[in-house]
Task: structure prediction
Amino acid sequence: MPLLGTLLLFWTLLATAQAPISEAKVEALVEALRLSAPQAGAGLYSDWQVKPDNIVRWSRRCLNQDVTPDQFAADPALARQVVACVMGNVLREQLAASNNNEIVAVQRAAAWWMSGDPEQYRNGATGDYTLKVLEAYLRFF
Result:
């Protein structure tokens, strides 16, 4: 029986790894990042714990408007929209970088989110974090 369970898990992961990145998958990543966010930290904003410089830069790029950190923190729908815009692009880039392996792409995107470096997805605390994000992500499918 353990072999059957292992095979089912393998086929599920294989099917997930080969599927294209849909908006539903981007939303799953965004929610996985929210669920995996560290406790509220000084100088970080919203449920996603975003640095103020990123809020300003990303809102300009994604919304064509300036959003202050306080506005970002006060409006979860706005924050989610900006994070989805940014992470959709990141996830698609990481899918290409991982040879279309969605599992690795999610981990690389999470590493980018945490450290700015997707190559860190297997290393130390960043690697631990990427596994936490991946686990949360896979619960949606």
